[in-house]
Specification:
There is one protein chain. By secondary structure, this protein is an all-alpha fold. Helices cover about 85% and strands about 0% of the residues. The protein contains three helices and no strands. The longest helix is centred in the N-terminal third of the chain and has 48 residues, at about 5-50. About 15% of the residues are buried.
Length: about 140
């Protein structure tokens, strides 16, 4: 590999590693947003359930609205995480096709560790959806 090819390979490697880091960051941000929003919904539901000054009909509406919104937010977070994981898979395929000089570390974990991380990031929205379904069934 000549000097110009090595510089191009280094630049491509840096861009690939940056994009992988970006997608991982997006997963983190999306999960954080989901958990924050879900926490606010749980807190609001608890406050509404303990309220003695609100109209009973309004409280009944909230018992359906909060779980429904929680399920929707969990579903949207799951879709967003799946989109980032799909982009990561595409980037891994680019890495496998690339010609990088010796000494360039793999910019992502081994398959098994990556899969376990993906389970967690996809599992949290699924757990939240299940929790809201459970809450919805209890409040009926």
């Amino acid at each position: 590999m000549n000097k110009q090819d090595e510089e191009l390979a280094r630049w491509q490697y840096e861009q690939l590693a940056h994009q992988i880091e970006r997608e991982d960051g997006l997963i983190n941000i999306r999960i954080g947003w989901m958990l924050t929003f879900e926490g606010f919904l749980f807190a609001a539901l608890a406050l509404a359930g303990n309220s003695t000054t609100c109209n009973a009909a309004f409280i009944d509406v909230l018992r359906y609205v909060f779980p429904s919104v929680g399920i929707l937010v969990g579903f949207l977070a799951l879709l967003a995480v799946k989109a980032a994981l799909s982009a990561l898979e595409d980037l891994k395929k680019l890495w496998e096709r690339g010609q990088y000089p010796d000494g360039y570390p793999q910019p992502f974990g081994k398959h098994k560790s990556h899969s376990h991380g993906a389970f967690y990031s996809q599992g949290l929205p699924i757990v939240m959806i299940g929790t809201w379904i459970f809450v919805f069934m209890i409040l009926k």
